TrEMBL record:
Transmembrane segments: none annotated. This is Succinyl-CoA ligase [ADP-forming] subunit alpha. In the N-terminal section; belongs to the acetate CoA ligase alpha subunit family. Keywords: ATP-binding, Ligase, Nucleotide-binding. The keyword ATP-binding applies. Residues 500-536 form the ATP-grasp domain.
Length: 901
């Protein structure tokens, strides 16, 4: 539905400009003029009762007076009039609207009220989609549509640009025209009263001209929809994003170590990475990335070949490449031999290829063609520093010819000014991305490499890590729920004792902790636990105990315990903040000489919800700043990647004869933290610091949890606090087939890839043909990732898990994929040959239809082979309409779920 109605905006056949004017400098005149000058091929209707004609076009008094129901209305009237204009458009059947008028949420409370009124009015006319208000508008170059306030029309290309900043649009358009960079779509979204970035990403995913997206983001709403759309897009095409406002100076000081380390910008960093989005940290990088993506939107490997006529620039490029974890391509022996025959004896005989300062265009051309042919080369960077005999324009022509002969990316840096200007112009016109410095070339190249790495990381098959818990979910959450019920609507810190109780319920091993409210009670506990022990101040007001010198270590006797108790009490009493002293906690002293101190925690971000963090811990955690972040839920591969990304990873693995820590146990701890955060939306912040890891064990020595009573979980929106939908465990069922065979009916998960491959291998050629409509010899990881790594907000695959010869197997899988609006879903099913005829198809189909109705999907469609009579009969029994008219060998089926029983 979104695609259908956004099409009215991006591919209209007729447009009304409401508020069009002959008044110079008015928004209405500029908007109409740009539409006309842009060469729009549809019908244009100015609407203004004060004119008979505007720009020689007949003007109409109102939208009701228009001779037809137009697809798109561009509103340029004063802010106060816009709600009524939107109403008139709705009554006239206009469903596509762009509001260029300003004076809404961006100006204050009254403007926000007007914007809310616009949204309320639009909702009374189903299908209405609004871009804006306070936006520049849109440009669709392939359709000669300039429905914007920007006078210049950029070239048609394959990059879609979405900007939350209207002021940025004009300079970007000027740059694009100067650099001959084309756009498929160009959108200024303004205040996003209705159409969101997520909706635009989904729409552009279906746009035949869009091969990549560039985003300029100031802030986001609807994080789950955004990440879901972005993850779907980046499976096949790249997104580059620039996020402004990286530092939030007004943010309140965080109460925990994790809270201090997970800032506003770092949450965006984690979210972008999880969605496969490549982030540009400089606006220059965003522009340059747009140009490169216009030429090479597909990911490539990180092995770069460098061809240069000067050693210095080659070294500069190499340094920049290695700094960003790229690789210099290692040439094959045949490539070295060919270059030996083509280049002077003094050439470098390695990568970078130094073709020597007097290199002609012929020498450049032969070296380039040889390097491009090497299978160890993923991309080529050509550098030119003009020498006395250099012909920058001639070399540029040679580079253009080489670039046209390959699908590998070719980049260039022509260093200098006047002498290289013509060469730069030719490269630009010839479609070769050219930049001023070698470092900039490398940065842009690594953006594309990073996109490939991100996409690959998100599709890595995780290992199955079964987690067991000492109690059920209700009991796991009890301490959290009770605390929130006692103080609803407030931020409630749990004591160390309570925090550790929560951790124990989630299967963490914690240092045994007991509360002592007197000296003698502390001694009695220490005698029972065994010496040495640790005493820590017990006070709900004190978050960081070391800040008040509230920790005493290695206490070896009852006398030392008494002295420590008194000393801690005295320090707290003398503290300038006047904290309440509630006693101490007593726990065994854990020797950490062969262990590593880590911090593991989470903080709720206002946009993306909980963000998980793991890093170097202890009292210096905030100073060291060695940490990694991810959005929950985690799987084994994501958790392991977090650890591997730490600077201290070599120490965790083991260094110079010192044993490493138990990484598998650490991964399990991250998965347990993820589970805790998924199940407990009430947690605002949580720290385990230090989490002590050794080669044998991982133990939580200290912990603190802060709850937010306003986030009490509601059964109807159990996972509303998460930006990514976790594995839908609620759909798991243990059942029996008609013949009594026990099976598990459940959603598929990434860990199922090995079983999915075995399922495919067990199927006959006929079964494969009927399911996939084409034949293949072997299922690849890329294919498996499409079917096993799914977004549970958009699609679901139900598998039948069986036990054969003591081994878990998948006997069948049924899948439905919904459109972005959950309006219609495509359905497909596969049953292994040896399990056919036993009711699995009916079982999985009924389960999927039930879930589709729960998702409020209106209809389900599928196709099957005309010869698959068993499947056709199964669809008929469930009320599907059968359509045999499309093809002699294919049957289309459809079922409406609106009033289905």
């Amino acid at each position: 539905m979104t695609s259908k109605h956004l099409k009215k905006i991006f591919s209209p056949k007729s447009i009304a400009v409401i508020g069009a004017s002959e008044r110079p400098e008015s928004v209405g005149r500029l908007s109409l003029k740009n539409l006309v000058d842009g060469g729009f091929r549809g019908r244009i209707y100015p609407v203004n009762r004060n004119y008979e004609t505007i720009l020689q076009l007949p003007s109409f008094a109102s939208v009701a007076a228009l001779p037809e129901t137009v697809d798109l209305a561009i509103i340029c009237t004063p802010a106060a009039t816009v709600p009524d204009v939107v109403k008139r458009c709705g009554e006239a059947g206009i469903r596509g609207i762009i509001i260029q008028s300003a004076g809404f949420r961006e100006v204050g409370a009254e403007g926000a009220r007007l914007q809310d009124e616009i949204v309320a009015v639009a909702k009374t006319f189903p299908g209405t989609k609004i871009i804006g208000p306070n936006c520049v508008g849109i440009i669709s170059p392939h359709r000669h549509l300039n429905a914007s306030l920007a006078s210049e029309m950029p070239p048609a290309g394959n990059v879609a640009f979405i900007s939350q900043s209207g002021a940025l649009c004009t300079p970007i358009l000027e740059w694009a025209i100067n650099q001959n960079v084309g756009f498929s779509q160009f959108v200024s979204i303004g205040n996003m009263a209705d159409v969101t970035i997520a909706e635009l990403i989904d729409y552009f995913a279906e746009d035949p001209w869009t091969e990549s997206i560039v985003l300029y983001v100031e802030s986001l709403t609807e994080a789950r929809a955004f990440l879901s759309a972005a993850r779907a897009f980046t499976q096949s095409k790249p997104i580059i994003a620039f996020k402004s406002g990286r530092f939030d100076a007004s943010a309140a000081a965080a109460a925990s170590h994790t809270g201090a380390m997970v800032g506003v910008d770092s949450a965006y960093e984690a979210a972008f990475a999880r969605a496969g989005i490549v982030r540009a940290n400089e606006l220059d990088d965003l522009f340059d990335s747009a140009e490169f993506l216009a030429r090479h939107p597909k990911p490539c490997g990180d092995r770069l070949a460098i061809v240069t006529n000067a050693g210095g620039p080659g070294v500069m490029a190499t340094d920049a490449l290695l700094q960003r974890n790229g690789k210099l391509a290692q040439f094959s022996d045949s490539t070295i031999a060919a270059l030996d025959a083509q280049l002077p004896a003094a050439w470098s005989r390695c990568n970078p290829v130094d073709v020597i300062g007097d290199a002609s265009e012929q020498r450049y051309a032969s070296a380039l063609q040889t390097v491009i042919r090497d299978r160890n080369v993923d991309a080529v960077l050509v550098l030119l520093a003009p020498q006395a005999t250099t012909d920058p324009s001639g070399v540029a022509d040679a580079v253009i010819a080489a670039a046209k002969s390959t699908t590998k990316p070719v980049l260039a840096s022509w260093m200098g000014c006047t002498r290289v200007a013509e060469g730069i112009r030719r490269l630009t016109q010839g479609g070769v991305p050219v930049y001023a410095t070698p470092e900039k070339c490398v940065r842009v190249f690594m953006q594309l490499v990073r996109y490939g790495r991100n996409r690959e990381m998100l599709c890595e098959t995780p290992l199955e890590v079964p987690l067991t818990f000492p109690v059920d979910e209700a009991e796991r959450r009890r301490c959290v729920v009770d605390a929130v019920n006692e103080r609803p609507g407030e931020r409630t810190p749990l004591s160390e004792y309570e925090s550790k109780l929560v951790l124990k319920n989630y299967g963490f091993r914690v240092a045994e902790t007991e509360i002592a409210r007197s000296q003698e009670e502390a001694v009695a506990i220490a005698d029972r636990l065994g010496y040495p022990v640790v005493l820590k101040v017990y006070s709900p007001q004190i978050m960081h105990k070391t800040d008040v010198d509230g920790v005493e270590l290695n206490l070896t006797s009852g006398d030392r315990v008494r002295e420590a108790y008194q000393e801690i009490g005295r320090r707290v009493a003398q503290h300038r903040f006047g904290f309440e002293f509630g006693g101490v906690t007593v726990q065994p002293m854990v020797v950490a000489s062969l262990s590593r101190e880590l911090i593991l925690g989470a903080k709720r971000d206002p946009v993306f919800g909980p963000v998980l963090l793991v890093g170097a811990g202890g009292i210096t955690a905030e100073l060291v700043q060695d940490y990694a972040m991810e959005l929950p839920p985690l799987n084994e591969r994501l958790a392991r990647r977090m650890l591997e990304s730490l600077q201290s990873w070599p120490l965790l693995k083991g260094y110079r004869g010192r044993r490493g820590v138990n990484v598998d146990l650490l991964v399990e701890c991250l998965l347990r933290m993820s589970k805790l955060i998924v199940e407990c939306p009430e947690i605002a912040e949580i720290d385990i610091n230090p989490l002590l890891a050794s080669d044998r064990d991982v133990i939580a020595l200290d912990s603190r949890i802060i709850l937010d009573g306003k986030m009490r979980r509601k059964s109807s929106s159990r996972f509303a606090h998460l930006a990514i939908r976790p594995y839908p465990e609620e759909f798991i069922r243990n059942i029996e087939l008609r013949d009594g065979t026990p099976v598990v009916l459940r959603p598929i998960k990434p860990e199922d890839e090995p079983m999915w491959h075995r399922l495919i291998e067990s199927c006959s050629a006929e079964t494969i043909q009927q399911r996939f409509r084409y034949m293949f010899r072997t299922a690849t990881h890329t294919m498996a990732s499409r079917f096993c790594f799914i977004d549970y907000d958009r699609e679901l695959a139900i598998v039948v898990e069986v036990i054969e010869d003591g081994v878990k197997q998948i006997a069948g899988v049924a899948r439905f994929v919904a459109d972005a609006d959950h309006y219609e879903a495509e359905f497909a099913i596969l049953v292994a040959d040896r399990w056919q005829g036993r009711g699995l198809g009916s079982l999985m189909t009924d389960k999927c239809l039930t879930i589709c109705k729960r998702w409020n999907i209106q209809s389900v469609v599928a196709e099957t082979a005309a010869s698959n009579h068993r499947m056709i009969q199964m669809f008929q029994r469930r009320g599907f309409e059968i359509d045999r008219s499309k093809s002699f060998d294919t049957v289309m089926v459809k079922k409406s779920l609106l009033d289905a029983d």
